[in-house]
Amino acid sequence: MLTAETVSLRRAAFRALKSLPGPRALVLFDFGYGTGRVTNEFALDFPRCFGDFGRDLHVVAYDVSAVGLDKAARKFIKEYDFDELDPLSFDMTAEAGYVAGSVRRIFDSATVTVTFVHGSEGDDSGFVGGLVRSVNGGGTVSMTTSWYSALAHIPGQSRRAAFFEMLAAVTDPGGELMVAPSVLGDLVDLQKQWRERRLEDDVAGLPIEVGGDVIYETELAQSNFWHVFGPDLWQLLQENANLGQTAWLEAIRLPDEEFRSRAEEQANFRRTRAFNRRIGRRPWREDDFREVHTAVAIRSGSPDAAVS
Ligand SMILES: C[S@@+](CC[C@H](N)C(=O)[O-])C[C@H]1O[C@@H](n2cnc3c(N)ncnc32)[C@H](O)[C@@H]1O
Questions:
Q1: Percent of the chain at pLDDT exceeding 70
Q2: Parallel, antiparallel, or unpaired: how do β-strands 141-147 and 25-31 relate?
Q3: Are residues 151 and 278 in the same domain?
Q4: Does 179 reside within a domain?
Q5: Is 0.85 surpassed by the pTM of this model?
Q6: How many A from CA of 34 to the centre of ligand 1?
Q7: Which residues pair with 40 in a beta bridge?
């Protein structure tokens, strides 16, 4: 977990807890949860960091891969003393998304519940939004996060826009939306390679449609689609922010080799912080995106966000 992710998430949770006084639980929907790299630490630290608010935390962990969800659920039970609240049942062959079960732990200052939702890549955004709301009695969630965002795995500009819109719509207007995809400073060579192929009309049958679309090979030699965001991220954010909400971008990580030590991560964090101070809340230009590896688009309904 990157320091910038922790800082950004804790600040947002603080704003949400202040601006949304009830119901009792702060509900956090994580889209593309994976194994919960960022969200699990937040959930486990919630009672200590936010216990004074007298609120509980309910995480809705959504991913199209059941492998990560299953692994995370077992870890909560085995290593962190969570109980199975609704028995966990993953169906690796399911053709549509479903709620796979929940785990829960009652801490002294807060109860933390994690509900695992196994989606299907074929589900449309409306279905996913409905599924997430169903976990919360049909209501909106207090916070939505998407770290190293799964939005990047969705081919097609209009489909990505529909999913972004869904993430915004399921989030309480007074709550916090945080979508953190990789941006133009990431995968620079691959972007160039696929841009050239697209301009040479050498992408027949592939979902390569616009700048930033790439296909990369995984370690298991599987071809994966990925969209690197640029000014389209700012545009999506603007389109999904209303009067009374504040919307801005923050860098989460600047381009660097993989971190081999905590010191390298901290050095990157210091440069990331300096970048954010320099840019402030002004709209990002294309060149700003080129300086950054991962950015977070934030929409806050909190009055505190407008003044900070
Ligand atoms: C780069 S990983 C990030 C995982 C995690 N958020 C993190 O920061 O470590 C992207 C995740 O998106 C999931 N994913 C891929 N396509 C998706 C889709 N259409 N809807 C939701 N999740 C998806 C993948 O299974 C994977 O877990």
A1: 100
A2: parallel
A3: yes
A4: yes
A5: yes
A6: 5
A7: none
**123 in the same domain as 76:** yes
Q: Ligand 1 pocket: which of 63, 98, 253 to mutate (most atoms <8 Å of CB)?
A: 63
SS3 state of residue 87 = coil
Question: Do residues 222 and 235 share a domain?
Answer: no
Residue 79, domain member (yes or no): yes
Average pLDDT for residues 203-225, to the nearest whole number? 94
The token duo for 28 is 């956090």
Higher pLDDT, 308 or 79: 79
CA dihedral 135, 63, 184, 179 (to 10 degrees): 10
Ligand 1 centroid to residue 123 C-alpha, Å? 14
C-alpha to C-alpha distance for 61 and 40, rounded to whole angstroms:
10
Compute, in angstroms, the gap from residue 218 CA to the centroid of ligand 1: 14
Q: 118, 90 in Cβ contact below 8 A?
A: yes
Closest CA to ligand 1's atom 25: 65
162 and 63 within one domain: yes
